[in-house]
Write the structure tokens for this entry.
Amino acid sequence: MNIAQQGGEIRIVLVGTQHPGNIGAAARAIKTMGLERLVLVAPERYPHGDAIAMAAGADDVLDAARIVGSLAEAVADCALVLGCTARSRRIALEELAPRAAAARLHGAAASGARVALVFGRERTGLDNDELQLCHAAVHIPANPDYSSLNLAAAVQVLSYELRMAALADGGHAVALAPQEEQREPPASHAELEGFFAQLGDTLDAIDFHKGRAPESALRKLRRIFLRCALDTREVRLLRGVLADAQRMARLASPPGPGE
Ligand code: SAH
């Protein structure tokens, strides 16, 4: 049974993979669990014979894999983006265990959204800018003294949890979408990033930071808004509020020379 969603989509994104064999092994891992969408962000060596060898019959997943230049491009149309990290680090992101992550991804995909689960490089994982693009982090609670799984093994664990979430839902991810589903579509990644950019500009305009570095406040605000799972209409409303705040700030500021 395939758990790929009709309407919604669960996308597995591998960022900067160094060993092509891991790409093949990841393709195999996701196919065994009924998933099929693989996106490769700037793989180091690909296409490659090792990928085909390790895919062991999941070459259809490899053949259909999309290759893009950046993580932002890979997730631009996604309503939910979760990033897997081998280290539980102090990042300003909510951290989920695999089961909770799978439930959230499955739930969003079942209501028609495109969602992404992102995996980092073998040597260095995801960098901080890439984690900032994620709505929450996922950590497999492994041995704290040796917590880094092989990339394809981590893909397997999460794909398994996604399958369990789908099976628990009768396997009909889309058919079982809740009936109150006359909701607006969830905001896309690009819409949220547009909102965050305007939020940053507005905080400057109202002199919110008062000389402090803006990054920390912006990170915390991102975290609050990402937790809310905003839909498209809600983002429009918030941007309307910001636009008025920006207009009032302009009115309140003394005219510059020559005005
Ligand atoms: N040395 C890297 C490890 C990368 S392992 C680091 O410390 O970040 C390659 C990828 O597999 C990681 O980026 C992550 O996406 C996934 N991964 C490995 N172990 C994981 C774990 N315990 N929990 C969640 N993801 C894990």
